[in-house]
Give the backbone structure.
Amino acid sequence: PGVRDVRVALTAVKQTGPTLIAVGSGKGGVGKSTVAANLAVALARLGKRVGMIDADIYGPSQPTLLGVHARPEAEGKQLIPTPSPHGVDLLSVGQLVSAGHALAWRGPMASGALSQLVEGDWKGRDILVIDLPPGTGDVQLSLVQKSKPAGAVIVSTPQDLSLIDATRAIDLFRKTNVPVLGLIENMAGYDCPHCGQPSDPFGQGGAEAAARVLGVPFLGRLPLSASLREASDAGSPPAAGDGPAADAFRDLAQRILA
Ligand code: ADP
């Protein structure tokens, strides 16, 4: 599917409720959650009413990334999203369990919890970003089938985006008729703080090349950056501030809305 198909899909969903954008990855640890949080904040800064569904049962990090520490309120069985200081309302699987406790859930239990997040009180939102669990297993598949995102963004480092990983993640969305909005290359390039010399710890250009081969749009690259990591750990997404990282996420958000 090309950019045009994606636009048609986004327009179609807009009329009936919030537009869902899934953020996925073939692997864990590539920065999927960091990118999802900052994209959500960037979309909010563009004037959208944005919600975040943190469905990453293996490592729910949106409460930390968005600086939300409260448990969600509920009305009857329906969860009410918790506002964050950065204008993005959150429902996270991490809010449903005590900090530090592992989620040793089997498929049906995980799916039940994820349904609760998707079926939260999201009325009035324009866009919901879903931070998917990494990989392409049953949990991901049923979540995508249930939530029916209007589009999906895939995050990869330049190196780990072997064609096989990319193909798997893209295949999951194609099988479920979710248009792939494009690939974002994260941790691409690093400027040494001592000598200023640029280097590429995870290689260079892998995601862009893979996007070309796979026929999906390449949305852009984000550098490996200590300040991005520090701000993320502190619950203050760089997209909420000023500077190159905020500009990069605004550009990505605009490209996704285009
Ligand atoms: P995933 O959701 O893919 O598992 P995370 O978003 O949790 O990955 O990121 C994994 C780790 O890498 C986190 O510590 C995060 O702060 C860090 N990280 C992500 N992107 C970058 C980047 N561009 N530069 C530096 N650190 C990053």
